[in-house]
Amino acid sequence: MTLNWKFYPRKYRLLVLACLSAIALVTSTIFSPVATAKLFDGPVDKLPTLERVSLREGKVTLLGKEGNYTCRILAKSSMNAAWQVLTDYNNFAQFLPGVASSELLESNGNNRVFEQINKIKTLVFSIESRIKIASIESYPQKITFKAIDGDLKTLNGKWILEPVSDYPSAPPDKVLITHQVMVKPAKTPSDSLFYGIYEDRLEETLTAIKQEAEKRFIQAQN
Asked: Quick check: 213 pLDDT over 50?
């Protein structure tokens, strides 16, 4: 924009310059990359576009293949309610699909050991497996785990919880639940069949955890 100074008396020129400087400052602040990054730096906003859209639609996102996976889901819950669900070892069978029984065997500080029996049924066969898992809890954000005995060759990974707000400066009212896992079967008729079933079970498990966390969150508010 070009100003024709002949239309402005000398005594108003400083005022005009001050106004223009203020407008320029506001404009540069709004549209600068730094300001934009600060406005959209939540844990969901940092993810790729397609994953962000799926999460906000309530869907599970599953990345990876052949036993190395990262799954996410967004739950309308508090961090505490989601944490209670992930550490309710004695009651997994009540809300997790395919879990026949689960029992906490050891508890020492932040360390836990629990045993879980899973049942998988398909149209042509049924499989029951047992696994003993050691976990380390870092409340309220992370749980690492590793199989120490059982029917799998390898199982290790972690759960990560992150609070999510609808907009900057708003109090968090959702939790991004991330599950990272590496798994290898011991003996199966087909590894590809095992991984296909495992991927389906992962999506079902994340959905069940979301539902249970949201239910407990509502109950805690009443």
From this structure: yes
